[in-house]
User: What shape does this take?
Amino acid sequence: MTFIKLFNRAMGVLSLALMLGSTPGQAAEPPFGGPGSIAFAKTLWTALENANWVGKEQIRSKPYLGTEPHGFVLESLDGQLEVSGRTGWVVVKRNYGPKGVKIDAVEANRSKHLAAITVMFKREKGYDPDNQDWFWAKYKADGSIDKDPKGANLVGRVAKGMDAGCIACHKGAPGGDMVFVFDPKK
Ligand code: HEC
Assistant: This one.
C-alpha cells in the first residue's frame, strides 16, 4: 500500500470517528444552557409545580432580608423532590423585589413581588462530580427560563469554569456542599 492510500484510509477512519462522536448537525451539549439542560429544567419546573414548591398553591415559609444577586427579600425551602422517577435533594429560593421592598409587603402579596426563582437540584452521581452533582436553574416568575445578559440560558452546570455565576459563588458556601442556608441532606 502506498503512503497516499494509507493516509486516505487513516483520514476515513478519523472522519468516521468524528461523525460518531457528535450527532450530525448538532453541537455537543455545553455545560449549561444547551437543549439537554433546557429539557431537564422544564421537567424540573413541572415537578416543582406539581409538588407546590412553585405556583399559585405554593408552600410558604417566612421571607427574610437578602442581598444581591438574589434579591431583596428571599424565601428559601429545601426537601426531597421526585423528577423523572428519581428523588433528589432540592433547594428552592424565591427572590422578591424591587429594591427596598419590605418583608410585610411581600407577605401581603407574594406573586406581585416575585422577581425570580433560583433552584438547585441534586442530580445523579457523575452529573458534575466537580460540583457535587448540582443542577442549577434560574426561572422568571412565570416559570420561563431566565437568561444572562449575553443570552445564555441559566440552566445546567451554571456557569462551570467561569469566574462568576452560580457555581463560582456557591463554591464559597460553608461545609463544602455549595449550599449556604441549609445543612446537607442526601
Ligand atoms: C455572587 C454570589 C452568588 C451567585 C452568583 C449565586 N448565588 Fe445563590 N446564594 C448566594 C448566597 C450568599 C446565598 C445564601 C444567602 C441567601 O439566602 O441569599 C445563596 C443562596 C442560594 C439558594 C438557597 C440555598 C443556599 O445555598 O442557601 C439557592 C437555591 C441559590 N442560591 C441558587 C443560585 C443559582 C441557581 C444561581 C445562578 C443562577 C445562584 N444561586 C447564583 C450567593 C450567590
